[in-house]
Design goal:
By secondary structure, the chain is of the alpha+beta class. It is built from three helices and seven strands; from the N terminus they run βαββαβββαβ. The protein starts with a strand and ends with a strand.
């Protein structure tokens, strides 16, 4: 991986942060979820896949967790969000890792239940979006780091 600047995010509102990132990348991305997905109906969505891609990979190998990749489109956005919010799966920590990639490049990653040292905005995420999320209280802050 090449050296790049990323933003480490301290999330206050995990669902709000994910919603904003999903909205930002709708119609040009894929989203992956990893964890206990047994209560979610993601496999019924069109083009759902359990096969890793070059950019969206499993983050936990032992024990192997449920893993799914979904296209992030206008049509799937509402279905994905409905499943997440109806089951309150982000707050109850059924989902351990979430990643969003566009054109096979990671844009956003929330690992280890959105832990503040494991939630990352890659260069594709506009700094203006992060500042807006901070100003509205969805995140506590963000810090630029070099990888």
């Amino acid at each position: 991986m090449k050296n790049q600047l990323i933003q480490w995010i301290d999330a206050r509102d995990k669902p709000g942060l994910l919603y904003a990132m999903m909205k930002e990348f709708t119609n040009k991305s894929q989203i992956s979820f990893e964890g206990d997905l047994s209560a979610l109906n993601f496999t019924t969505l069109p083009n759902a896949s359990t096969k890793e891609t070059d950019s969206l990979k499993r983050q936990t190998t032992e024990p192997e967790l449920n893993f799914i990749i979904l296209p992030l489109t206008t049509e799937t956005f509402h279905n994905i969000w409905h499943e997440l919010s109806e089951k309150d799966h982000l707050v109850n920590e059924g989902i351990i890792h979430v990643q969003i990639a566009t054109k096979e490049e990671l844009a956003f990653g929330a690992y280890d239940n959105f832990h503040k040292e494991c939630t990352v905005a890659y260069p594709l995420v506009p700094t203006e979006l992060l500042q807006n999320l901070k100003d509205t209280g969805i995140i506590r802050g963000y810090e630029e780091r070099n990888t």
